[in-house]
Amino acid sequence: MDNIKINNMINSAKNYKTVIIAVVILAVVGVAAYFESGLFIRPNLTKAQAADIAIKFIDQSIDENATASLIEATDEGQVYGLHIEIEGTEYQSYITKDGKFLFPNGFNLKTEPGN
Q1: Residue 57 needs a FRET pair 20 to 30 A away by CA distance; which of 2, 9, 24, 107 works?
Q2: 47-103 maps to which CATH number?
Q3: Which residues contact residue 110 at a Cβ distance below 8 angstroms, ignoring those fewer than 6 apart?
């Protein structure tokens, strides 16, 4: 009788171990799929893609007779710097690498005020 109880306990422990391993594997796969899908981290655009989004937005936002053109796009760390021209006037703008926010200008906080 004692052997049967011991065998049942061993089988029960094996079943719990199998269930725990399966749950851990499913959790790992689920987390990996979530991160890979881009729901958590939005993938970065290339400089050209981000510049294209910004130019299209600017063109739609300004006078229909004026157009914006890209002079240069640079990688500024967390954002792309956009040197653009609108009707002969040059501007420096910034767009986030995910293309979500466009800034008409920026302030370099690493320099002394007035410099």
Answers
A1: 107
A2: 3.10.450.520
A3: none
CA 81-114-85 angle, to 5 degrees, is 30
Torsion sign over Cα 87, 90, 93, 99: positive
What does the H/E/C string look like for the chain? CHHHHHHHHHHHHHHHHHHHHHHHHHHHHHHHHHHHCCCCCCCCCCHHHHHHHHHHHHHHHCCCCCCEEEEEEEECCCEEEEEEEECCEEEEEEEECCCCCEECCCCCCCCCCCC
List average pLDDT for each run of 10 residues in the chain, which is 115 residues long. 63 72 83 66 85 93 86 94 94 94 87 70
Q: How big is the chain, counted in residues? A: 115
| pTM of the full structure | 0.60
